[in-house]
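Case study: LHPL6 protein.
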Amino acid sequence: MASSLTCAGVVWAFLSFLCAAASCVGFFMPYWLLGSQLEKSVSFGTFRRCSYPVRDESRQTTVMVEQCGRYASFQAIPSAEWRICTVVTGLGCGLLLLVALTALMGCCVSELISRTVGRVAGGIQFLGGKCSCREGMGA
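Here is what the predicted structure looks like once written out:
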């Protein structure tokens, strides 16, 4: 297999893929915030939640649903900030994954990644990482 990458490029491609995979897993996991409510352990992320309160109309009380799942709709995400975070983090993860997969393809295909393409891909990766990190820090 011919490669269009240098040794440093191959290392960058594999590290990029690992970082993109970790970012995507972190995006899909509901463990961004942990706490307790109604004496139950709860956690939620941008679009997933575990152990959440639901109003039981028949008993006129609030009960805890002890399971994990996505919000029923985009509008069901608790606040506008969390909706924005979901979109920005999802876009960041998508950019990171796109660049990482392209870089991995560069390990197998000659003349796929030139010096200019590598620089542009690094810039896109920086932007994707900046989007993911900024939301993770609560900025």
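For the exam, be able to explain this: Residues 61 and 138 are 33 Å apart (CA to CA).
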